[in-house]
Amino acid sequence: MPFKPRLGQNFLNDAQAVQRIAASLGDLNGRTVVEIGPGAGVITAALVARAAHVLAVELDPDLAAHLRVEFSQNNLTVYQQDVLMFDFAAASSQAGQPLLVFGNLPYYITSQILLKLAASHAALERCVLMVQREVADRITAQPGTRDYGLLSVTVQLYGPATNLFTLPPAAFSPPPDVHSTVFRWRFAPRFAELGVEEKTFLPFVRKVFAQKRKTLSNNLRAAGFTPTLIASALTHSSIDSHARAEQLPIETLAALWHALQST
């Protein structure tokens, strides 16, 4: 199939990788799977063979038409649309079950798709996603490591994410300039467990990670908190006054949020 660079298209051509990806979603018997960006349909074929129903969401009208011709199975539905506009809640309601998701995410829109999936978490059970290796490392990073930051915390607040395997550029046609990592994201939001409100805690997290080179105290001051309040909250949360946000686990960030609300 001809590819369109502006859409970030790189088609997987590694048959072994296709089978590993399909297996990574787990048992698909009786399940509905949403595939984001199916492209030429290489992974679609493996999903259709395993799942009760596959919903293929493809932006490219030529590829969407190709998929409709290529697959005659009645357990495949092709949606020619932007995945950011796709209604996961409606699809889950129609399926009568939480959805499983696979996506080979275009590099230029990865973060927006991750946020869309997070916002749709009530309709989803788990995802297996392929992204640029450096992005996957940031998503799954742990506190105190170089890659840990806003993306790590945002994704992990909605459930655990684990890197599975990495593919070289040669596994794709045309080969991209980067390696690609497949990771699994299981949806199990932590807001209730942490006692924080999603609509206020997420903006707070963005503020504490606003300037990575600055200390937590400096970022909080830039966000409008007074030095006295910051000092009191850090002491209450047992956080060093010189700490940076990337050193703190999610639980500690939640404790700081609570301290700032109650102090």
Write the layout of secondary structure elements.
Blueprint: E1 11-12, H1 15-24, E2 32-36, H2 42-50, E3 53-58, H3 61-70, E4 76-80, H4 88-95, E5 99-104, H5 110-119, E6 124-132, H6 133-139, H7 150-156, E7 161-167, E8 172-173, E9 180-186, H8 191-194, H9 198-208, H10 216-222, H11 227-236, H12 250-262
Parallel strand pairs: 2-3, 2-5, 3-4, 5-6
Antiparallel strand pairs: 1-8, 6-9, 7-9
Helix pairs in contact: 1-2, 11-12
In brief:
This protein is of the alpha/beta class and 263 residues long. The chain has helices at 15-24, 42-50, 61-70, 88-95, 110-119, 133-139, 150-156, 191-194, 198-208, 216-222, 227-236, 250-262, and strands spanning 11-12, 32-36, 53-58, 76-80, 99-104, 124-132, 161-167, 172-173, 180-186.
